[in-house]
Amino acid sequence: MEMLSDSEDDLCRAAAALRSGDLVAFPTETVYGLGGDAFNPAALAKIFEAKQRPRFDPLIIHIAEVSVLERVADLTALDAEMRKALDILSAELWPGPLTLVLPKKNSVPDLATSGLPTAAVRLPDHPVALKIIRYSTGAVAAPSANPFGYLSPTRAEHVAEQLGGRVDYIVDGGKVRVGVESTVLDISGRRARILRPGGMPRERIEELIGPVDTAAAEGPLPAAPGQLKSHYAPRTGLYLYSPEAMMAVPWNKSEAFVFFDGKFRDQWIAGNRLEESSGGVPANIRVLSESGSMNEAAANLFDFLHELDNPQYTAIRAVEVPETGLGPAVNDRLRKARAEAKDNPQPYQGQTG
Ligand code: TXA
Ligand code: MG
């Protein structure tokens, strides 16, 4: 594995590597992706192998121009209403954290889509990702660059630690901006349906195209790949509480605590009589956003969990966040990261990856 910078020379090298079938991890605005040429089945096979990802869980194809859509998606097979939705969403929300599931073109290898008749496509909002895609073949398949089931990477170091031996290059673009994966919206049928809550809030999508459905809790497998209850999980057991339930959980120096905002942390510290006599807030207590900004909370979520997933702590105790903006995406990741979910691998609503 070689670490690359975001210099023009290095991005050209990264793109050349992709063209020759190598794997390149690169930053997007959501999380780091593990990229391979979307049209090269051997590169796609390497992605599944590197991530230890089950072959039934399809990949997202990343493009850098809307015009490339026609190379991967069969737009003539779209329902008329959904065709309009595509035009609006791609014009308004791309580049951005929105993945669209569309009828696929036959030229897209089955490995990319796990044999489904649809392909997931997105146009990321990150200059490094866009250049790498443009300088390569124009279509890069990339799942999040983590071992299957583990926390998603928000920094190049996370990729190096988890997949360093399994990827040819990692492009370092610093910490990502959004911090949770893209929203996956299926418009391949007659109605738009959210398969995975993510970095594009439902409200923003509905403002543009009206009400959208949510994937059924227990969809049949082919219609809803990657529906696993456990995902995004740290090795340290994570336990999730409502704010009310969290108030009853006592402080323990060998455990880590994750709160949404500073106000709740202060209440909890007071409730626990953990006065600041100990010289400030103990290091094992974190808040996702001191001021309660949901965007900041989402950006810090995986970053903090990476830090706290450390043998120094025997458990991570986290509190659910409000369901506004990116809140549903943050809560979805927290629920799937729970230790309980790990012990009980049953289908769970929403998408994974
Ligand atoms: O933000 C993101 O989406 C990141 C960055 C790297 O772009 N990528 C990402 O990929 O999260 P991954 O592979 O971790 O998650 C892809 C999700 C999975 O839940 C997968 O099941 C779903 O997209 N997916 C892919 N193709 C699909 C299809 N044809 N139909 C339904 N779901 C699909
Ligand atoms: Mg993933």
Automatic annotation (TrEMBL):
Indicate the enzyme's highest-level EC class.
transferase
Q: Supply one GO molecular-function term.
A: double-stranded RNA binding
The main location is: cytoplasm
GO terms (BP aspect): regulation of translational fidelity; tRNA processing
Q: Which GO terms describe its cellular component?
A: cytoplasm
Report if keyword Transmembrane is assigned: no
InterPro entries according to UniProt:
DHBP_synth_RibB-like_a/b_dom, Sua5-like_dom, Sua5/YwlC_C, Sua5_C, T(6)A37_SUA5, TC-AMP_synthase_SUA5
EC number, as in UniProt? 2.7.7.87
Positions of ATP binding: 53, 118, 144, 152, 196, 232
* Entry's localization field: Cytoplasm
Q: Where is the YrdC-like domain?
A: 8-200
* Positions with a binding annotation for L-threonine: 30, 62, 122, 142, 182
Q: What reactions does this protein catalyze? A: L-threonine + hydrogencarbonate + ATP = L-threonylcarbamoyladenylate + diphosphate + H2O
Please provide the record's keywords in A-Z order.
Answer: ATP-binding, Cytoplasm, Nucleotide-binding, Nucleotidyltransferase, Transferase, tRNA processing
**Quick check: keyword Nuclease in the entry?**
no
Entry's family note: Belongs to the SUA5 family.
Q: What does this protein do?
A: Required for the formation of a threonylcarbamoyl group on adenosine at position 37 (t(6)A37) in tRNAs that read codons beginning with adenine.
Name assigned to this protein? Threonylcarbamoyl-AMP synthase
- What is the native source organism of this protein? Breznakiella homolactica
